[in-house]
Write a structure and sequence with these properties.
The protein has 207 residues and is of the alpha/beta class. The chain contains eight helices and eight strands, in the order E-H-E-H-H-H-E-H-E-H-E-E-E-H-E-H. The protein has one domain: Rossmann fold (3-Layer(aba) Sandwich), CATH 3.40.50.300. The mean pLDDT is 95. The structure holds adenosine monophosphate (AMP).
Length: 207
């Protein structure tokens, strides 16, 4: 089954976590613009230098930069059997441009309560192997070295949430008109959320 998906949700809604599971199960690449940008930052490229200032402030990068990244990424061979976007599109312009170069079949929105989002983000800690812990819900075992994302501080988190809500409605309306938008609760237990995602994907398969 070729499937082109978007997982939407505020920062901390669990997009990255579920995207990794979907990507593994359906063998499609997980395309996270945030991950791509963080890699550029860590490599110290020109793009990374530009990206860092926006990311540290919790602001969105300009649409043309993001679209260029996505166009390049979709050219790669691994996208032939489908792909899953996480953290993209973040603006209506990005959604409209994506519509020209891709054919999205399903947009799943993980809706979460803000208090949970803030706890998930302020508590998020990442181990060197990429495993994500949370000091409140799932603390790292003793001896495991973790780090915190530069933008996971309360001030930046509030800015990221504000921007998310201000850009979300037009994107949601855009996909609702295309009849491909579905909303599920993202603050249920991980397994429950994943089951709901799988059931949406099952329905897609049935057509
Ligand atoms: P994320 O890992 O998805 O939370 O993204 C981290 C940061 O990367 C965001 O706060 C933005 O600064 C930037 N970013 C990621 N994806 C996008 C996008 N689609 N459009 C603009 N900026 C983005």
């Amino acid at each position: 089954m070729i499937v082109n998906l978007i997982l939407m949700g505020a920062p901390g809604a669990g997009k990255g976590t579920h995207a990794k599971d979907i990507s593994r199960q359906f063998n499609i690449p997980h395309i996270s613009t945030g991950d791509i940008l963080r890699e550029e930052v860590s490599k110290g490229t020109e793009l990374g230098k530009t990206a860092k200032s926006y990311m540290d402030a919790g602001k969105l990068l300009p649409d043309d930069i993001i679209i260029k990244i996505i166009k390049g990424r979709l050219q790669k061979d691994d996208c032939k059997s489908g792909y899953l976007f996480d953290g993209f599109p973040r603006t209506l312009v990005q959604a409209e441009k994506l519509d020209i170069i891709s054919s999205i079949e399903s947009v799943i929105y993980l809706k979460c309560n803000d208090d949970i989002l803030i706890k998930r983000l302020t508590g998020r800690r990442i181990a060197d192997d990429g495993k994500i812990y949370n000091i409140y819900f799932d603390p790292p075992p003793e001896g495991i070295k973790t780090y915190q994302r530069d933008d996971d501080n309360e001030e930046t988190i509030r800015e990221r949430l504000k921007i998310f809500y201000s850009t979300f409605i037009p994107i949601m309306d855009f996909y609702k008109k295309l009849n491909i938008f579905q909303e599920i609760r993202g603050d249920d237990e991980r397994a429950v959320v994943y089951e709901k995602i799988l059931s949406i994907l099952e329905d897609l398969k049935k057509g």
